[in-house]
Specification:
An 8-stranded mixed beta sheet has the order 1-8-7-3-4-5-6-2. It has an 8-stranded parallel barrel with strand order 9-10-11-12-13-14-15-16, surrounded by 4 helices. The chain is α/β, with parallel strands linked by helices. Helix 2 (68-81) crosses helix 6 (126-141) and helix 17 packs across helix 18. Helices cover 46% and strands 14% of the residues.
């Protein structure tokens, strides 16, 4: 086969035999019925209940073993299997005469349609829902559940149409050399877990599953190239480049700085306390994005102030004297909370009531969170900074700053995720103490491209010149008011793009912990002037491909990083 091309989402080079995951879910027959009597219905309902609980317990156990972001994703899947609404749906179908396996399949189908229609965050979870459904149906029918090998004698390249978290969460670089999927995007669960594991990954790679099982495959997780049956020289070259890259990464230590000594703090993105260990291991100077919504999602009741305070304090205490930036609850619209009454129907949830807008509608939620943050900050030596998501106007920025002042939080800022905020960053920075650019959502809204839709991956490319223009405007607006402007989207994890962001005026970079060493090394090999030149060249380009190439021409130190 010729070389395939996808989207590189986790850097590095992986080589191994292809293991092509070709699991096909069994679809129970639509006319699948049980005996019809009350006793039959009760027996079928018990079978379905036991299967769902077995799946939930298995996912929960895997989550505990995996920890970190993988654990959080698997916990959410376990809660899907135990959802009371799902149980009611299964019961209704069984009582009407439907057999257990078909009842489970149809009940999940109802939820699947709702999530798919919602798009965004919930749309992304359709694959997770399908996985829970398929596992439960397999248990009911006495068939093996989906899975991947964990002991093959040598690391393999896992190739699939898509991958479920339960299939990958307990893998390691000793088991899997790389991931390749035909679907997914830069923010898919495959991409997130691969980066967390430090395993090379390429997604949105058409034709990947046509690779014959067992075929040696070379995967470049930075360029997105997938080479079946590589030559010995290609493999040797890739391995030598990888070894040289590791040596370069090991040589770059300490705080983030450019080659001429300009400080660029390197921070980590986390979802909760369990991600702190990885942040420390990879040399994070602090936390640039603490996603607090994981405390709130998939719960029947809001977390108490005490529970929130404990979760915040655990992270703060891990960075004594350091900076910890907490993003307040980013939910609503496409991430509804079960404990809040549903609002008006929103035909386009991505443009609906979410982030800071939700806080204004439910001030009691904001009040509890801000009070818990203030209480945690009072007990720690870390420098807590709090920022609001989805801020669109200077008025919203001022409103949030006033709320933080009232709660006793001295440092408050806003996320720049909406083009209006980037365009008027100077106005927002009158009251906002700092700005932080969320490149994922900013790209989504600037280019009208759903970040979860694989077909629009090209528009989601962080090298889009229009997106770089907005980043430059936001950084300049912050500088005009003497404010710091960081970046905490996935763009910061690309070493070349990290240099460009610095050249655009970004003052700190936050990313998934495993990306920190490569970004630290890239900055240490280039002066601030080189970063400025790379940024100017990228902005002058007409396409993301041209922007990437032009920027790299001004960043010669990347050659030694094999990126």
């Amino acid at each position: 086969m010729s070389t395939l091309t996808g989207v590189g989402v986790s850097p590095g080079v992986g080589v191994g035999p292809a293991y092509v995951l070709a699991y096909e879910a069994n679809v129970p027959a639509p006319d699948s019925r049980h005996g019809g009597g009350a006793g039959d219905a009760a027996a079928e309902l018990a079978v379905a209940g036991r299967a769902l609980e077995r799946v939930a317990a298995d996912l929960e156990a895997r989550g505990v073993l995996a920890g970190g972001q993988a654990g959080e994703i698997l916990e959410a899947q376990a809660m899907m299997a135990r959802d009371p609404g799902l149980a009611d749906g299964v019961a209704t179908l069984v009582e009407a005469g439907t057999a257990a396996a078909r009842a489970v399949y149809e009940a999940f189908g109802h939820y699947r349609d709702l999530l798919a229609a919602a798009g965004g965050y919930l749309g992304e979870r359709v694959a997770d829902l399908d996985d829970v459904r398929d596992r439960a149906v397999a248990v009911i029918e006495g068939r093996p559940v989906p899975g991947v090998p964990t002991d093959t004698g040598q690391p393999y390249v896992l190739v699939a149409r898509d991958l479920a978290p339960a299939d990958t969460a307990l893998l390691s670089p000793e088991v899997v050399a790389a991931f390749v999927t035909e679907q997914g995007g830069p923010t898919s669960h495959t991409a997130i877990l691969a980066r967390a594991m430090g395993v090379p990954a390429v997604v949105a790679c058409p034709g990947a599953t046509s690779i014959a099982p067992g075929t040696p495959v070379l995967v470049d997780g930075a360029s997105g190239l997938v080479r079946p049956a590589p030559s010995g020289d290609e493999v040797l070259g890739a391995r030598n480049a990888a070894a040289a890259r590791e040596a370069v990464l090991a040589s770059a230590t300490g705080p983030g700085t450019t080659a001429d000594g300009y400080a660029v703090p390197l921070l980590a993105n986390i979802g909760g306390p369990r991600d702190v260990a990885a942040a420390l291991e990879h040399g994070a100077e602090g936390i640039g994005l603490y996603r607090t919504e994981f405390l709130f999602l998939d719960r029947a009741e809001a977390p108490s102030a005490a529970e929130q305070e404990a979760a915040y304090l655990e992270v703060l205490d891990a960075f004594p004297g350091g900076r910890v930036i907490v993003r307040t609850l980013d939910a609503g619209a496409d991430k509804p909370l079960a404990f809040l009454p549903p609002g008006a129907y929103e035909p386009n949830p991505a443009l609906g009531e979410r982030g800071v807008r939700l806080f204004r509608t439910h001030p009691e939620i904001m009040g509890t969170q801000l009070a818990a943050l203030a209480a945690a900050a009072a007990r720690s030596s870390a420098r807590l900074q709090v920022m609001a998501p989805m801020v669109a106007t200077a008025e919203e920025a001022a409103w949030f700053a006033d709320a933080c002042d009232a709660a006793g939080l001295p440092s408050s800022g806003v996320m720049i995720e909406i083009p209006s905020a980037a365009l008027r960053a100077s106005d927002l920075a009158v009251r906002a103490g700092f700005l932080s650019i969320g490149t994922n959502d900013l790209a989504q809204y600037a280019l009208a491209a759903d970040r979860q839709l694989g077909a629009l991956t090209g528009l989601q490319d962080a090298w889009q010149p229009a997106l770089l223009d907005l980043v430059a405007l936001a950084a300049a607006g912050a500088a005009e008011r003497g404010r710091q402007c960081g970046a905490c989207g996935e763009a910061a994890a690309d070493p070349a793009l990290a240099c460009v962001l610095v050249g655009l005026g970004v003052t700190s970079l936050s990313m998934s912990a495993p990306a920190l060493p490569a970004v630290r090394a890239a900055l240490s090999r280039h002066t601030r002037q080189q970063c400025h030149l790379a940024a100017a060249a990228a902005r002058a380009a007409a396409s993301p491909e041209e922007a990437r190439a032009e920027a790299r021409s001004h960043l010669p130190g990347l050659a030694g990083l094999a990126l």
